[in-house]
Design a protein that fits this description.
Blueprint lengths: L2 E3 L19 E4 L2 E4 L15 H5 L6 E3 L9
Antiparallel strand pairs: 1-4, 2-3
The structure holds iron/sulfur cluster (2 copies).
Protein name: 4Fe-4S dicluster domain-containing protein
Pfam family, one: Fer4_10
Organism: Tepidiphilus baoligensis
Length: 72
């Protein structure tokens, strides 16, 4: 499952954007969004999702359970 950003909690700080190894995060209207087609859950790059680690707001970058798991 890719990660998603809870829009109502995103402050637009941009901390997550540069940490994504897949360039899956971009700014949209003052907040940031994850492209689910590009997010690999950081699999192949890191043990932990970098957007989660970078985000200063708890529970803002979260798994999108509506989508299937990423398969490498
Ligand atoms: S989990 Fe990793 S690949 Fe997915 S958006 Fe976050 S930093 Fe990018
Ligand atoms: S790090 Fe968190 S608060 Fe900052 S832009 Fe990314 S999702 Fe939004």
């Amino acid at each position: 499952m890719p990660y998603k950003i809870i829009a109502s909690q995103c402050t637009g700080c941009s901390a997550c954007e540069a940490e994504c190894p897949n360039q899956a995060i971009r700014e949209k209207g003052g907040i940031f969004v994850i492209n689910p087609e590009k997010c690999t859950e950081c699999i192949g790059y890191f043990d932990d999702p970098q957007c989660v680690l970078a985000c200063p707001v708890d529970n803002t970058c979260v798994i999108d359970t509506s989508r299937p798991r990423y398969v490498a």
